[in-house]
Amino acid sequence: MVQGPLSYGLQAGLQIGQGLIENQGYREQAARYEENARQSLLAGALQETQIRHQERAVSGQAIVAQAENGVAIGSGSALDLLAQNAVNREVAVLNTRYSADAQAYGYRTKAADARSAGQRAIIGSVISAGTQVLTGMRQDARQAQIAQAQRDYPGGLQLPGVAGTSSGGVYGSTAPTTLDLPY
Question: Whole-prediction pTM value?
Answer without folding.
Answer: 0.66
